[in-house]
From TrEMBL:
Residues 95-174 form the PUA domain. SMART domains: PUA. This is 60S ribosome subunit biogenesis protein NIP7 homolog. Its main location: nucleus. It comes from Drosophila lebanonensis.
Length: 180
């Protein structure tokens, strides 16, 4: 596992700050130790420095990955967050969207969220802001990007898309064959 280049580190932190803002620092310096990001086969992994030191005893051919996969870089050097990062990003999310129970399944099938499916939304969220999508029971369901700001949502038509789907916990089932 290698360190991320300066360019890819910048891309990663910009993507994370889109969802959690300045809380990126809390991902690295945690109470249970220091964590870091490493790259292996264009995937970004979030791993404890203690575990990373233990993994140096093995060659790269002997293990598939170390840590939690946060995302993958495309050939055009864009980062797509994987759903495995949700449990780490959700507690620090600045902007949140809650989906009505009747629309949870539609979101988990990969559909965008219309205003009619919107339960609640964090105040003062700007357009194209990264959000964490929750059920009304505060269970994180996935990632999204706001199609409209919070103030625009109030006066929008019920069928207007409010949040674009990025990824969700239903991807494990839908993309089971292509993940490995």
């Amino acid at each position: 596992m290698k360190r991320l280049s300066e360019e890819r580190t910048k891309i990663l932190f910009e993507k994370l700050s889109k969802y959690i803002g300045t809380n990126v620092k809390q991902l690295i310096d945690r109470a249970d130790g220091t964590y870091c990001f490493r790259e292996h086969r264009d995937r970004v992994y979030y791993v404890s420095e203690r575990i990373l030191k233990l993994s140096e005893c093995f060659s790269q051919k002997q293990f598939a990955c170390v840590g939690t996969c946060f995302g993958k870089f495309s050939k055009t050097n864009k980062l797509k967050l994987h759903i495995t990062a949700l449990s780490f990003i959700a507690p620090y999310a600045q902007y949140k969207v809650w989906v009505k129970p009747s629309f949870e399944q539609q979101f988990l099938y990969g559909n965008h969220i219309p205003k009619s499916g919107l339960g609640r939304i964090t105040e003062n969220a700007a357009q194209y802001q990264g959000v964490v999508v929750y059920s009304m029971n505060d269970l994180p369901l996935g990632f999204g990007v706001l199609a409209r700001s919070t103030t625009d949502c109030k006066s929008a038509d019920p069928l207007t898309t409010v949040c674009f789907h990025q990824s969700d916990i239903g991807e494990y089932i839908r993309a089971e064959d292509s993940l490995f």
